[in-house]
Amino acid sequence: MAGEPQPDCLFCKIVSGEIPATIVRETDTTVAFRDINPQAPTHVLVIPRLHYPDAASLAAAEPQVLADILRETGEVAADEKIVGTGYRVVFNTGAGAGQTVFHTHAHVLGGRGLQWPPG
Predict the structure, then answer these.
(1) pTM for this one?
(2) Which residues contact 118 (CB under 8 A, 6 or more apart)?
(3) Angle (CA) 43 68 15, round 5°
């Protein structure tokens, strides 16, 4: 059921502590951790503790939690000292857009030039 932990979800297992991750921030509603395959010097994922497959479904069901994720992306950028040089926040939605874990997550990328358009 939406919002409930899913037994086969990698990110739900990170939230529960079943799978280790390099956690950089935690709140009551979010967890932020380093990506295991970083695409920039700073590459941190910010996820909700609740399970929703993508940002749109989370926004429809729990808009405040989506706002919490966006607030945390700014906090991660400040902690990582990339605010001044710029950073990117990305939500991939669907396999065709590169989403591989179907649990809402924002990528915080920075620490190098990020060209536009991306890939």
Answers:
(1) 0.96
(2) 88, 90
(3) 65
Q: What is the pLDDT of residues 56-93, one digit of tens each?
A: 999 999 999 999 999 999 999 999 999 999 999 999 99
Q: With helix as H, strand as E and coil as C, how does 51-93 read?
A: CCCCHHHHHHHCHHHHHHHHHHHHHHHHHCCCCCCCEEEECCC
H or E element: which one contains 44? strand 42-48
pLDDT above 90 (res 34): yes
Q: How far apart are CA 9 and CA 26, in angstroms?
A: 19
CA 77 to chain centre: 12
Sheet holding 30-34, edge to edge: 23-26, 30-34, 42-48, 106-110, 87-90
Q: Which residues are catalytic?
A: 105
Asked if the peptide bond before residue 117 counts as cis, ω within 30 degrees of 0, the response is: yes
| Residue 87: strand pairing partners | 110
